[in-house]
């Protein structure tokens, strides 16, 4: 029988080798990552028709799905999501993809997915529709369902198929957290069948799997038990309780919709998948999803601020001066992200607490003793400052004292490598004032991290009037190299984040001075969508720090105020166990929240000064664009991502 004619494809290459094995390569044109666009899926439909025909006349033994890019498939094409949100288009598009993936699964010949790099969202759903999955066990390979971060859940049948392969507990956990799993974890859960050490082995192992007609086994009964009867309701309740601790259903409906779907259909993976489209469509069309997509693209855009191509610098050694909370945590973070770090302070007694905190962080994040021990080895106490001369980046994070900072940089500029970044983590002193006495003031930039360093993704890269574009871009490159998101900010009091936070926090503090309940104000801000209320935030930041930033920004704190008195009494918040709240075991002891008829409206009122100030900062050119302000405030303060940032929220009349 003549081989059916295959229409040309732009997203895929297909060839059959002499053994009769088909090699299907996804290659999204003109893009750094592969995605499942509508066009790619339509082409795949034609290809699958082709496989069906070839399998019938036995000219094709099986197919290996692969990518020649560094990543496998980064999911459905998010750039199409706005257009795809149309309820007139989406349900049929989803059902069509479901039919396509079902046809792949129903092929009589083995289809093997070979995975390297990112295998995410729709990419994982496609892999799960294949019969067998092989992944490279390396640092670059990550497997997961990040959909909840975009306000949706898997929509190509992945909810059911992941439960079939991994059992309900692990699969739901993966979908609800959006976590990117390491290959070993994905293998342990059953999302992947086999691991290889190197990408070069994928071809050979893929071939072997086809020839051996490998078929992945679904999760065993022990794992699946939790999907049945009352166990399922119990599990759904537990997951809902967990979700409530982290998110508000009104703000982030996707996890709750997924749990509801699981509770109703989770006992039968096919019914779970079949129920997906109806629950998916309203989520995709929601304001939350649109705003979370915006956050995704803004965040991707920040990556472009670093130096690229041949100019892209490499960073290996970091020297941090000042082992206090910020300096110590910055040093720990850099070591966690693979840099060799020297941490300098006056003596070992001052450095030791930072090293102890670092160990805790390494254990929490890296888990494996080998990885923890190498991170510990990468972070070196350096009371004499010997590491400075070898460092690619020098970060000063000592007390906010102009003279001390000036003398540190006067010394550093003479000893540091000529191309090393010299950066201060000052949160309130204008850069020009520190730089002006230096032999070359253009070398000093600001790298302003946020507390807690391990949690807040933002680094404000501060630009003084002396800096060149290249030196600021190099600072952004460094922030990216340690996995942070840089926003370039003009040197001006409070930069962006402290400047916009302060009127919001002080506004709330004033209301407490007038007799309002801190618990009520905090609950209102959280009901609006902030991760933490303003009074609890002030206690967390430290009342002394809050007061000095307030002064730097020209906000008056009357001596007779409760705020000033607390500072005078050394009741500085969380770190001293007492501030506006009493703190025990790192938690604020709160009284019952008084009732209020409309908490979100009160929250909105509290947040208004923050939004006003963001508008002013943009008008003054503190950041390059309103978009940078939105993403900077989200990443630096946790401002409600589902609203898309303060300016987007105002534009939508939500703040
Ligand atoms: N759809 C459309 N575009 C995507 C995409 C997707 N699913 N995933 C990545 N991209 C784009 C990014 O927007 C960026 O585009 P740009 O260069 O025009 O800014 C580019 O691909 C990524 O390039 P880069 O930043 O160099 O890649 P990376 O190695 O830093 O990160 C990923 C790659 C895949 C880890 C990261 O982009 C990611 O997490 N993507 C989202 C995955 C996702 O949520 N998928 C589920 C969709 S339902």
From TrEMBL:
BP GO annotations: fatty acid beta-oxidation
Pfam families named among the record's database cross-references: 3HCDH (PF00725), 3HCDH_N (PF02737), ECH_1 (PF00378)
UniProt keyword list: Fatty acid metabolism, Lipid degradation, Lipid metabolism, Lyase, Multifunctional enzyme, NAD, Oxidoreductase
InterPro entries, per database record: 3-OHacyl-CoA_DH_CS (IPR006180), 3-OHacyl-CoA_DH_NAD-bd (IPR006176), 3HC_DH_C (IPR006108), 6-PGluconate_DH-like_C_sf (IPR008927), 6PGD_dom2 (IPR013328), ClpP/crotonase-like_dom_sf (IPR029045), Enoyl-CoA_hyd/isom_CS (IPR018376), Enoyl-CoA_hydra/iso (IPR001753)
Source superkingdom: Bacteria
Limits of the 3-hydroxyacyl-CoA dehydrogenase C-terminal domain: 494-583
Gene3D superfamilies, sorted: 2-enoyl-CoA Hydratase, Chain A, domain 1, N-(1-d-carboxylethyl)-l-norvaline Dehydrogenase, domain 2, NAD(P)-binding Rossmann-like Domain
Leader sequence residues: none
EC nos: 4.2.1.17
Protein name: enoyl-CoA hydratase
């Amino acid at each position: 029988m003549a081989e059916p004619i295959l229409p040309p494809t732009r997203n895929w290459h297909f060839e059959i080798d002499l053994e009769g094995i088909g090699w299907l390569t996804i290659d999204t044109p003109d893009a750094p990552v592969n995605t499942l666009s509508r066009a790619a899926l339509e082409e795949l439909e034609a290809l699958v028709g082709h496989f069906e025909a070839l399998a019938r006349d036995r000219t094709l033994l099986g197919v290996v799905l692969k990518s020649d890019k560094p990543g496998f498939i980064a999911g459905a094409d998010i750039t199409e999501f706005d257009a795809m949100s149309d309820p007139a288009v989406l349900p049929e598009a989803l059902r069509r993809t479901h039919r396509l993936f079902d046809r792949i699964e129903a092929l009589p010949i083995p289809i093997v997915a070979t995975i390297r790099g990112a295998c995410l969202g729709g990419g994982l759903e496609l892999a799960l529709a294949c019969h067998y999955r092989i992944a490279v066990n390396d640092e670059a390979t990550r497997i997961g369902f990040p959909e909840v971060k975009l306000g949706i859940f898997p929509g190509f049948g992945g909810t059911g198929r992941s439960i079939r392969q991994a059992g309900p507990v692990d699969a739901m956990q993966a979908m609800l957290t959006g976590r990117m799993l390491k290959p070993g974890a994905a293998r342990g859960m059953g999302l992947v069948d086999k691991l290889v050490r190197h990408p070069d082995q994928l071809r050979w192992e893929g071939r072997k799997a086809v020839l051996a007609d490998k078929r992945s086994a679904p999760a065993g009964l022990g794992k699946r038990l939790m999907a049945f009867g009352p166990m399922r309701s119990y599990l759904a309740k537990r997951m809902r309780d967990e979700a409530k601790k982290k998110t508000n259903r009104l703000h982030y409906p996707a996890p709750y919709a997924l749990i509801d779907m699981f509770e109703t259909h989770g006992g039968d993976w096919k019914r779970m998948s079949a129920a997906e489209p109806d629950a998916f469509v309203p989520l995709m069309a929601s304001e939350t999803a649109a705003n979370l997509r915006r956050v995704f693209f803004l965040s991707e855009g920040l990556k472009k601020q670093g130096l690229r191509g041949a100019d892209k610098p490499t960073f290996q050694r970091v020297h941090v001066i000042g082992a206090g909370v910020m300096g110590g945590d910055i040093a720990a973070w850099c070591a966690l992200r693979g840099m060799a770090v020297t941490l300098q302070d006056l003596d070992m007694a001052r450095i030791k607490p930072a090293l102890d905190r670092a160990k805790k962080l390494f254990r929490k994040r890296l888990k494996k003793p080998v990885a923890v021990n190498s991170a510990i080895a990468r972070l070196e106490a350096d009371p004499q400052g010997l590491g400075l001369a070898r460092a690619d980046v020098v970060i000063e994070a000592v007390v906010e004292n102009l003279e001390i900072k000036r003398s540190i940089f006067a010394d550093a500029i003479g000893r540091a490598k000529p191309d090393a970044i010299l950066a201060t983590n000052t949160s309130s002193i204008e850069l020009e004032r520190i730089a002006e006495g230096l032999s070359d003031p253009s070398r000093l930039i600001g790298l302003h991290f946020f507390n807690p360093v391990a949690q807040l993704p933002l680094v404000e890269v501060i630009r003084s009037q002396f800096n060149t574009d290249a030196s600021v871009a190099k600072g952004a490159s460094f922030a990216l190299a340690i996995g942070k998101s840089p926003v370039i900010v003009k040197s001006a009091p409070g930069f962006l984040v402290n400047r916009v936070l302060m009127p919001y926090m002080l506004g709330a503090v004033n209301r407490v001075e007038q007799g309002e309940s801190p618990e009520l104000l905090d609950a209102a801000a959280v009901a609006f969508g902030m991760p933490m209320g303003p009074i609890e935030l002030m206690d967390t930041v430290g009342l002394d720090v809050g007061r000095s930033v307030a002064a730097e920004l020209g906000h008056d704190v009357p001596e007779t105020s409760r705020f000033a008195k607390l500072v005078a009494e050394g009741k500085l918040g969380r770190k001293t166990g007492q501030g506006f709240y009493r703190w025990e075991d790192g938690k604020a002891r709160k009284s019952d929240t008084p009732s209020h008829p409309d908490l979100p409206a009160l929250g909105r009122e509290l947040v208004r000064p923050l939004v006003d100030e963001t508008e002013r900062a943009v008008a003054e050119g503190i950041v390059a664009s309103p978009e940078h302000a939105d993403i900077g405030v989200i990443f630096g303060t946790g401002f409600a991502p589902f609203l898309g940032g303060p300016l987007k929220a105002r534009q939508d009349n939500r703040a």
